[in-house]
Amino acid sequence: xxxxxxxxxxxxxxxxxxxxxxxxxxxxxxxxxxxxxxxxxxxxxxxxxxxxxxxxxxxxxxxxxxxxxxxxxxxxxxxxxxxxxxxxxxxxxxxxxxxxxxxxxxxxxxxxxxxxxxxxxxxxxxxxxxxxxxxxxxxxxxxxxxxxxxxxxxx
Length: 155
Description:
The protein is an alpha+beta fold. The chain has one domain (about 1-150): Aminopeptidase, CATH 3.40.630. The protein is built from four helices and seven strands; from the N terminus they run βααβββαβαββ.
């Protein structure tokens, strides 16, 4: 059974998941890693969700304020041995609900073109590709997406 926990950046189990995520990103981003990592500092992100499968921390994700009405989905990760079990979808749904409860009307995110599984997940969950925003404008390896939050989109 998947259990979801809303937490903050000080959670020690979260720290372990983030270390694993950063290692994966260092490898996949290559020379671009320093550019991306500067926007993912934990001290700048406070709203995290950890997913547990059979009491084991299996994945995480976060929301960060982008603007008064927009939350940005950040730091999505599921350990390889737990993939394919719906964990990322559950994390994403919880993050969207939390953003909605915090009065955000939309979520945006950035992922890499090389992250085809992530792009597929976001599209299946109602995200639409948008022009690259903010620091990702003009970054060829980035895919930016958006989803409007309302009672219908959260079902």
